[in-house]
Design brief:
heterotrimer, A alpha/beta, B alpha+beta, C mainly alpha, A: alpha/beta, D-Maltodextrin-Binding Protein, domain 2, 2 domains, 9 helices, 9 strands, about 20% strand, C: mainly alpha, MetI-like fold, 13 helices
């Protein structure tokens, strides 16, 4: 289980959270006592979580009929900026540690961030991998149209790191502003290969195929979650985070290709 | 050099069926009320509106013949137009406006400007060559438009109401200028106007267009002496009665009878001059040598010491009487009245 | 400021109109004031003269001017067709040609892929026969910008052509000018103010274009990263720089719009020019 470097008590918090969530599911009556959630919980979540969190939200609503989850999916950096400007979010789930750190440093979170999922990179290629791309080294071919994320967004930083670690000089044709744009370029056939998260390859289904990046080169992306400082529904926020970390949440995340934290 | 045109065209409510011929060097005025189709006829000649049927030919050159599919584009006709509000191009200087036609016909720029300048001098606008058209007065604009139209040496010049855009104060002096400038052009000219004064001052011959038909052509004197349409009769200020003469009596379509002095039998027009009509309340005292028609006064219009009385009845007439007569009779609109006129005062001519 | 053109007439204005207009002005001015307020003035010059920023700015200027030129070249004939030629389905064609006004630009970018991309309807032949690929190239940026910018020009010019007195065309024809000569020497000069206004609008739209560009042409410094893309990406990591770059973009457009206003839109209206 990974924790944020600067949050020393995260492990403890996480343990506590885990115990609570186990307890609630053991009891079979989730709406009783202090663990019950009611009202609307507003979750600001990274765009890459869209499908998984939507399903988690539905499961959450089943478990806590009095509660209602609304999501705002966007780039983590945008969400961090929105929360920084006072957006009424209860929960912030980021796709990277940096954007979460920005908020914790500014005192905009009220709980210590916990990592709830991990993700790793893959090379996304056309279905059936017609060009026979076998690994990172093949991407150096100047005839290939390779796209990655821009260095300003996490998936771009990670991609650059992979190229550097592999000692391969890759010149992308485009530095996309988000990972979905990389997927689109490949699924539309405009690009031959791209660096994306494995969850994205999975989500693309038949429209694309993934080529594994060896573990020694791959970068592990970590997804932290926290309650915001100005959360209108802080109690509900905590219950939601517990739910994400709980068995149901983790099972759903895994089904979308996320790694356990 | 002659122009001959038979124009047939339906445009909205206008049904144009007009035949027209212009002789070499002649200025024909096309006179008619608003909506008669004058401007449309002009557009047909210029090629701006294609004919539905008919023929337009200049000498031996057919310009428009729907039957054979012949159509010469406006820019390829040796015809220039002076439009009603002149339509000078505002983004060009006056000189460039006049040179436009030559430039469009690929004359070298220097030649075009030289010729244009000569034309401007000729119409007295040499000082305005570099001005924008908006700096010109109405009369000056008209001269510039005339210079622009003539600079291309057309064989036929069409003028569409060239004086209508001017106020009354300047119209007569501009008309005088126009007459002078038009006299220097020896090609054919057609002038469209609704003002008989223009026709009188400028034209050799007039053609009266009414309701899309040419109803009368001739010199202005001929036309006004024997009106053949209500429009011309109104222009001249006489009552026109159309009918058939038989045995000294002209009978109208509505079976009104006009006793006349003497005229050959057959379809004819009779002119009843307003001042020859007398109005009486009691018709019994009228001699048999007089016509007497019953009617109702619809309007009384005082013009100085004369009074024009509009009467509707067996015949629609305008009578002109003195103020003294009006006072004596104490006429009011709605009064029943008898209009009488001597048979010898009525002029009759064959239709 | 010469001549009597700037002479002002005192008119009494209805108060509610003034108030609402004032709100509208504030609505547009306040976000700009917000940017100015948050701008890091001490480091602004450094951000502006940053190589990447200058590269993006230069690319933006080049591409937007190309897009404007293409919009004029194709947009004016299109506007003329829509305004002057009564053909069946004209309404449909007009709607088609202004569709990109309402289309979310990102969708526009994807649609451009389908048309001009490597696998697109036409793009595959461009690729196969002429070895031309538009995505991820500067030409692709120009195409994306033209796609979203041209309707502004078409709408402006078409409206102006419709109001034009066609009798001037008639006059030109009777003077011996062909349709083409008439179009060039009479029609075009007459619609010049609208053409200028439309071109400026199209240019401004092209300059600010983001969604279609980043989708269709991608984002690579020096090739396809225009100023708005640079601003957007800077927001991710360095909001201060993003504000400075955005302000630079705004100031450039503002200067051009204000500068051109006088020259093109400040002309005396025609009604004043008609001689009595």
């Amino acid at each position: 289980m990974r924790t944020l470097p600067r949050s020393a008590s995260a492990s403890l918090a996480l343990l506590a959270v885990f115990a609570v969530s186990c307890g609630s599911s053991d009891s079979g009556s989730p709406s009783t006592g202090s663990t019950g959630a009611s009202g609307t919980v507003t979750v600001f979540a990274a765009a890459s979580l869209t499908a998984a969190f939507t399903e988690i939200g539905e499961a959450f609503a089943v478990e806590y009929p009095d509660a209602d989850v609304t999501f705002n999916f966007a780039a983590s950096s945008e969400l961090a900026a929105q929360i920084g400007e006072g957006a009424p979010a209860d929960v912030f789930a980021s796709a990277d540690l940096d954007n979460m750190t920005k908020l914790t440093d500014a005192g905009a979170t009220s709980t210590d961030p916990v990592v709830f999922a991990g993700n790793e990179l893959q090379i996304i290629v056309a279905p059936g991998n017609p060009l026979g791309i076998a690994g990172v080294a093949d991407l150096a071919d100047a005839d290939l149209i390779v796209v990655t994320c821009a260095p300003e967004v996490p998936c771009g930083t990670y991609a650059a790191q992979v190229f550097e670690d592999a000692g391969v000089a890759v010149t992308p044709k485009s530095l996309e502003e988000n990972v979905k744009a990389v997927v689109t370029k490949v699924t539309l056939g405009e690009a031959d290969a791209g660096i994306v998260y494995r969850t994205d390859v999975l989500a693309a289904g038949d429209a694309a195929a993934g080529v594994e990046i060896p573990d020694d080169l791959d970068v592990l992306a970590e997804y932290p979650i926290a309650v915001t400082e100005l959360a209108p529904n802080a109690a509900g926020a905590r219950v939601f985070i517990d739910f994400v970390l709980g068995a149901t949440g983790q099972r759903i995340l895994a089904s979308y290709g996320f790694l356990a934290p | 050099m002659t122009l001959s045109a038979q124009v047939a065209l339906q445009l909205g409510t206008l049904d144009l069926q007009a035949e027209l011929a212009v002789r070499p060097g002649e200025l024909l005025a096309l006179l008619g009320p608003n909506g008669a189709g004058k401007s449309t006829l002009l557009r047909c000649l210029a090629g701006l509106t294609p004919l539905a049927a008919g023929l337009v030919a200049l000498d031996d050159t057919v310009l428009d013949d729907p039957a054979t599919g012949t159509f010469v584009e406006p820019e390829d006709r040796p015809i220039s137009v002076v439009f009603q509000d002149y339509l000078l191009f505002e983004h060009m200087s006056v000189l460039e406006n006049v040179a436009f036609g030559l430039r469009a016909r690929r004359a070298p720029k220097a030649d075009a400007r030289r010729i244009a300048r000569e034309w401007l001098e000729r119409v007295g606008l040499g000082d305005y060559a570099d001005q924008r058209p908006r700096a010109l007065s109405g009369g000056q604009s008209q001269r510039a438009a005339l210079a622009r139209a003539l600079a291309t040496s057309p064989r036929l010049l069409l003028l569409d109401e060239p004086l209508a855009a001017l106020d009354a104060a300047t119209r007569s002096s501009v008309r005088r200028d126009l007459r002078r400038h038009l006299a220097t052009f020896d090609g054919m000219r057609i002038l469209v106007t609704h003002d008989p004064v223009d026709a009188y001052a400028l034209a050799d011959r007039v053609a009266i267009l009414e309701g899309g038909r040419i109803v009368q052509t001739g010199t202005l004197a001929e036309v006004t002496a024997h009106p053949r349409s209500r429009y011309v009769a109104d222009l001249v200020g006489v009552n026109l009665v159309a009918g058939v003469v038989a045995g000294g009596v002209l009978t109208t379509d509505s079976r009104a009878q006009v006793v006349i002095a003497d005229a050959p039998a057959g379809p004819s027009y009779a002119i009843v001059r307003p001042h020859s009509i007398a109005l009486v309340r009691d018709a019994t005292a009228v001699s048999s040598a007089r016509n007497t028609w019953r009617g109702t006064i619809v309007d009384i219009d005082r013009l100085g010491d004369r009074v024009r009385v509009s009467i509707d009845g067996e015949l629609a007439l305008i009578a002109e009487i003195t103020v003294a007569a009006l006072d004596a009779l104490q006429l009011r609109p709605g009064d029943d009245i008898h209009a009488t006129v001597k048979a010898t005062d009525i002029e009759v001519y064959p239709a | 400021m010469t001549g009597g053109r700037r002479r002002r007439r005192r008119v009494s204005l209805p108060i509610p109109v003034l108030v609402l207009a004032g709100v509208a002005v504030a609505f547009f001015a306040l976000p700009l004031v917000g940017l100015l307020w948050r701008a890091p003035w001490s480091s602004a010059w450094g951000y502006l003269t940053d190589d990447d920023a200058l590269t993006a700015l230069r690319l933006s200027m080049i591409c937007s001017l190309w897009a404007t030129a293409l919009s004029v070249l194709f947009g004016v004939p299109l506007a003329w067709l829509l305004a002057k030629v009564d053909f069946p389905g004209r309404g449909v064609v007009r709607a088609l040609c202004t569709l990109s006004l309402v289309l979310p630009p990102v969708v526009g970018g994807v649609a451009l892929f389908f048309a001009l991309g490597r696998r697109g309807l036409v793009g595959q032949y461009l690729d196969r026969w002429f070895d031309i690929t538009l995505p991820f190239t500067t030409a692709g940026v120009v195409v994306a910008q033209t796609f979203v910018a041209m309707p502004f020009l078409v709408i402006t010019v078409e409206a102006s052509l419709r109001q034009l007195d066609t009798r001037f065309d008639d006059a030109s024809r009777t003077l011996g000018a062909s349709r083409w000569y008439t179009f060039r020497r009479v029609t075009l000069p007459a619609i010049r103010p609208a053409l200028a206004a439309g071109a400026v609008l199209a240019w401004a739209r092209a300059l600010g274009e983001f969604g279609a560009t980043i989708t269709f042409a991608g984002n690579f410094p020096g090739t396809t990263q225009t100023m708005p893309l640079a601003v957007y990406l800077a927001l991710e990591t360095n909001p201060e720089q993003a504000i400075v770059l955005a302000l630079a973009l705004i100031l450039i457009s503002f200067a051009v719009l204000v500068g051109l206003r006088d020259r093109w839109f400040g002309r005396a209206p025609r009604a004043n020019a008609v001689a009595a």
